[in-house]
From TrEMBL:
Organism encoding this protein: Kosakonia pseudosacchari
ABC transporter domain mapped to chain residues: 12-246
Family label: Belongs to the ABC transporter superfamily.
Membrane topology according to the record: Peripheral membrane protein
Protein name, per record: Amino acid ABC transporter ATP-binding protein
Superkingdom per UniProt: Bacteria
SUPFAM superfamilies registered for this protein in UniProt: P-loop containing nucleoside triphosphate hydrolases
């Protein structure tokens, strides 16, 4: 298994990563370093490569050029490397991806019992702990379609946490929600950030970015245009593209 020491104690290190869909280049020489416990928010216009970038980190998308290291392990064609890296990463999508035929509790325990080989009682205890954490324990025996969108997304967060990841990736986790449900999901993510979880969040929720992020990144045309702490990113952006993006999104 190929393991190297990532620079600057980074838990995630992407170096000159590029990806194409046919002739269309969706990622163009992207380099990104994320330290353990760091919270990174990625924003940018639709089609800028944000989702593809984070999906490459756990090999939901395959990059064609460059290097991705997670905990010093290279994400490549080595199946053992892919499996090890995926065990350390939880991911939340726009859609909840819950099994509709399973109860909330069973949705949570299926991963720990099958992948981490926990006993059902152990997995149940862990699941209830995280359902309490996302303030939805009283819904444990309901089915996903009996819940609101915001509740389903909180269940999805709890399910990811049951795998005890070191890193959480969020791909526009509130974009499919009604406006009144967004806050309840963002509140759970705020609590998670406060716990010290390493987080990369693709979102247009700029209030969340200001409050939570250690670093805010703007992507456009498959490249990282700007990367800065939130106070700099929002008040003194260096790049005209960043100023244009902020003008558009903050005026809505």
């Amino acid at each position: 298994m190929q393991t190297t020491t990532p620079p600057h104690d980074a838990i995630i290190q992407m170096t000159s990563v590029s990806k194409w869909y046919g002739k269309f280049q969706v990622l163009d020489d992207v380099s990104l370093s994320v330290k353990k416990g760091e919270r990174v928010v990625i924003c940018g216009p639709s089609g800028s490569g944000k989702s593809t970038l984070i999906r490459c980190i756990n090999r939901l998308e395959e990059h064609q050029k460059g290097q991705i290291l997670v905990n010093g392990i290279e994400m490549n064609d080595n199946v053992r490397n892919i499996s090890r890296i995926r065990l350390s990463i939880g991911m939340l999508f726009q859609q909840f991806n819950l099994f509709p035929h399973l109860s909330v509790l069973d949705n949570l325990i299926i991963g720990p019992t099958l992948v981490r080989k926990m006993s059902r009682p152990q997995a149940t205890e862990l699941a209830m702990h995280y359902l309490e954490k996302v303030q939805i324990a009283n819904q444990a025996h309901k089915f996903p379609l009996q819940l609101s969108g915001g509740q389903q997304q909180r269940v999805a967060i709890a399910r990811a946490l049951c795998m005890q990841p070191e890193i959480m990736l969020f791909d526009e986790p509130t974009s499919a929600l009604d406006p009144e449900m967004i806050k309840e999901v963002l509140d759970v993510m705020l609590d998670l950030a406060d716990s010290g979880m390493t987080m990369i969040v693709v979102t247009h929720e700029m209030g969340f970015a200001r409050t939570v992020a250690d670093n805010v990144i703007l992507m456009a045309d498959g490249r990282i245009v700007e990367s800065a702490p939130p106070e700099t990113f929002f008040t003194q952006p260096a790049h005209p593209r960043t100023r244009q993006f902020l003008d558009q999104i903050l005026s809505h």
